[in-house]
Structure formats: C-alpha cells, structure tokens
TrEMBL record, chain A:
Organism (species): Pedobacter mendelii
Protein name listed in UniProt: Uncharacterized protein
TrEMBL record, chain B:
Gene3D superfamilies in the record: 1.20.1260.10
EC number from the UniProt entry: 1.16.3.2
Matches recorded under InterPro entries: Ferritin, Ferritin-like, Ferritin-like_diiron, Ferritin-like_SF, Ferritin_DPS_dom, Ferritin_prok
Keywords for the protein's UniProt record, in alphabetical order: Cytoplasm, Iron, Iron storage, Metal-binding, Oxidoreductase
Domain Ferritin-like diiron: 9-154
Family matches, as PROSITE patterns: FERRITIN_LIKE
Name of the gene encoding the protein in the UniProt record: ftnA
Catalysed reactions, as listed in the record: 4 Fe(2+) + O2 + 6 H2O = 4 iron(III) oxide-hydroxide + 12 H(+)
Its biological purpose: Iron-storage protein.
Subcellular localization, as worded in the UniProt entry: Cytoplasm
Listed PANTHER family: BACTERIAL NON-HEME FERRITIN (PTHR11431:SF127), FERRITIN (PTHR11431)
Designated name of the protein: Ferritin
Top EC class for this record: oxidoreductase
Main location: cytoplasm
Length: 119, 175
C-alpha cells in the first residue's frame, strides 16, 4: 500500500539480494524493507531492532524442534509489521539486514572522507 | 546518501554493545559488593561491611554514568539483568581476594573498550573513559591495600578484628 504513496525514484537502494531489498529515503529519513511480499517502512531504531530480532533467532533449534512448525513470527513491540518466515527466509532476511548495515558503515566512512573532513 | 545511522548516534554499534556490557559488569560489581557487605556483617566485621556497602554504591554510580553516556550519545542503554552473585565466602580473607580479582577484571574490561575506541578513532568515548581508567587506579589500589593488611597484621589472635578496624581507613591520594 505504502508503495503507492512514495516515489520509488527517490529511494536509494542500500542493499539487495535475490529475495528482497532495502531502500533509504533521504527525504523522509527512513528505510523501506521490501521482503516477504511486504513493503514496510522503518526508522533507524526499528530497523536496528528488526536486525537484532532476526539475529537472535536460533535457526538450528527451529529446524530441530519437531514439536513446532518450522515457521517463526518475526516482529517486536512497537513494530507495525509482522513476518511469518520459514528457516530459509530467516537466513535470507538476516543476510539482507547484515548487508545493509555493512553498507551503512561504508557510507559512513565515505561521508566522513568526502563531506566532513576539512582538508 | 545521508548517513542516517550516524545522525542518530555518535557512537558506533560495536562501542554501544561494549558499553552496555560494561553497564552490566558494573551492576554485577555493585551486587557482589553488597553480597560481601552482607557476609561481613553477619560474621561480625562491621567496618568491612560498611566499606563494601560504600563500594556497592560507587559501582551503582559507575553503572549510571555509563548508562547516561550511552543515552546522551543517542544509543540504546540497556538495563541489565544480574544473576549468579556469590553469597558465601570461605573466610574473611577470601572476601578481599575476590574483591581485588573483580576490580582487576573491570580494569581489564575498560582497557579492551579503550582499545576498540582507539581502533575506531572514537576519541569522544576515549575521553569519557579516561575518568574510569583513573577510577580503576584507585579501586585496585584500595583492594590491594586491604588484602595486604592480612600480611601486615596477620590473622592470628585478634588479627581479624584489627584488620577489620583498618579497612575503613584506606584512602588513596595521588600525591
Ligand atoms: Fe566500577
Ligand atoms: Fe570498582
């Protein structure tokens, strides 16, 4: 739904994998996570929370536990979005988020060199 | 592309994680000292009980100082869970041995954070940590001096009673 309200051209693709992408909007100071059939908006804090929640999932336990479905609900307090993901999707989302945060680090280094350091 | 994460917070996530771990360690120290205070009180070492109660309060202050810094820099400060506090000690001397060991571990921990800051060129946090490095000088000195009383006075006869009386008088001055 939100996809219709924002101009996709103004979004910067931070990181992509086969299963999804994460974009940044410099105008709205926020991020959009395109994953699992959802196009969801996050701010700095909630994107970090999402990463932590995904990283904290014990994938081995999820696969080995026979009393539970191999799905996991991914969400956190204050998050407007809920994902129901299987183990493969969780691994993919984790990769997507970790790649994104690596790009943030890289962007930080570049910003420092280009704009912030007075020579 | 805007550097949104940096706009939000002065410290990196790695440093934030380390500082949150340190918050937990200070909380642990505080609980441990309180536990030592309880043991000393129950065994009749009133001055040492006071000494450790004061130390417990100081550790709580350290925890809050770190907590405020993380928040002020735009990070997420986490209120720690503390568990596994030792409540029983084999003897009066062991309490002081444990206290010194705990302070050494804390000094080591601050050195590690400092090294990471140096690596990241986070001079702002390094400057903040200077206060703690100096504090550790005093903390280790006091813990070491207290333990030395066991050698100087000896535990025989009224020795422990004498040691207890002296523990509260240990002070540190740079000059
Ligand atoms: Fe401390
Ligand atoms: Fe201490």
């Amino acid at each position: 739904m939100e996809k219709a309200c924002i101009n996709i051209n103004e979004l910067i693709n931070v990181f992509s994998i086969k299963q999804g992408s994460i974009y940044q909007s410099d105008k709205l100071n926020c991020f959009f996570v395109d994953f699992g059939g959802k196009f969801a908006r996050y701010n700095c804090l909630s994107l970090r929370k999402l990463k932590k929640v995904v990283e904290d999932i014990d994938i081995d336990a999820l696969l080995l536990n026979t009393h539970k479905a191999d799905f996991e609900v991914v969400t956190f307090n204050g998050c407007e979005h809920i994902y129901l993901l299987n183990a493969c999707e969780i691994v993919a989302l984790k990769e997507l988020l970790q790649g994104t945060f690596t790009m943030f680090k890289l962007n930080h280094l570049i910003s420092d060199c280009l704009h912030r350091l007075v020579v | 592309m805007k550097d949104l994460m940096r706009i939000k917070s002065l410290i990196s996530q790695d440093i934030e994680t380390l500082l949150n771990q340190q918050i937990k360690k200070e909380a642990h120290s505080s609980s441990l000292y309180l536990s030592m205070s309880s043991w000393c009180d129950q065994n009749g070492f009133d001055f040492s009980a006071d000494y450790f109660a004061k130390q417990a309060e100081e550790e709580r202050m350290h925890q809050l100082k770190l907590f405020k810094y993380v928040l002020d820099m735009g990070g997420n400060a986490i209120s720690p869970e503390v568990s596994g506090i030792k409540t029983d000690f084999a003897g009066f001397r062991e309490v002081f041995e444990d206290a010194l060991e705990a302070e050494i571990a804390i000094t080591q921990s601050f050195k590690n954070i400092y090294a990471k800051c140096q690596n990241e060129q986070d001079f702002v946090t390094m400057e903040f940590l200077n206060w703690f490095l100096k504090e550790q000088r005093e903390e280790e000195y006091k813990a070491r001096r207290a333990l030395e009383l066991f050698e100087v006075i000896g535990e025989e006869g009224t020795g422990r009673w004498e040691i207890d009386k002296h523990v509260n008088k240990i002070t540190y001055s740079e000059q």
